[in-house]
From TrEMBL:
Its cofactor is Zn(2+). Coiled coil: none annotated. Keywords: Lyase, Metal-binding, Zinc. It is an enzyme of class 4 (lyase). InterPro entries: Carbonic_anhydrase (IPR001765), Carbonic_anhydrase_sf (IPR036874). SMART domains: Pro_CA. It comes from bioreactor metagenome. The keyword Zinc applies. This is Beta-carbonic anhydrase 1. GO terms for molecular function: carbonate dehydratase activity; zinc ion binding. PANTHER family: CARBON DISULFIDE HYDROLASE, CARBONIC ANHYDRASE.
């Protein structure tokens, strides 16, 4: 790897840092919101719900699924970071929602020759069922039950910018 491979991004960061005025936050979710959403670059989590830097915790996973690590983030957010509302937000035209784990593993194997068939990717072509499962997982998890935390399941349309509550 060459040091200039990231020069454009570091240059952009230098300009960003020159105008940066948002220092001093304590890491607490000021609006009490945590969002689990996809890693898709068409999604701007804070902007799509009218929040700003420091207002919410954002966890990004392939497909916006509540993975093991996302679950840990939700638990820590609720118990340590002022989170009292969790939004689970998959989206339209999601590559991870285009098939099951085998389908995606086959695509990776076709592209690279690597066999990732033993990995749990969490993909499902039935995004609605996946969303329902993830919301229920959070609502019934022993470290969430009895807490004053609301869990909602939403769907984001990447073509219209609309967020719709499903659960």
């Amino acid at each position: 790897m060459h040091h200039d491979d990231f020069a454009d991004l570091l240059g952009s960061n230098a300009r960003y840092a020159e105008a940066f005025t948002d220092s001093g936050f304590d890491g607490i979710a000021k609006a009490g919101v945590l969002m689990v959403t996809c890693m898709d670059s068409r999604i701007t989590p804070l902007q799509m719900i009218g929040l700003r830097l420091g207002d919410a915790k954002i966890l990004r996973t392939p497909g916006g699924r509540v993975t093991h690590d996302a679950l840990i983030g939700c638990i820590l957010g609720v118990h340590l970071l002022n989170v009292d509302r969790i939004m689970v937000v998959p989206h339209s035209r999601c590559a991870v929602g285009s098939g099951d784990d085998k389908f995606l593993a086959d695509k990776v194997r076709d592209a690279t020759g690597a066999d990732i068939s033993g990995m749990v990717l969490g993909s499902t072509p039935d995004q609605e069922a996946g969303l329902r499962f993830d919301v229920e997982l959070l609502r019934t998890h022993p470290l969430m039950v009895g807490r004053d935390v609301l869990v909602g399941g939403f769907h984001y349309d990447v073509d219209s910018g609309r967020l719709t509550q499903r659960y």
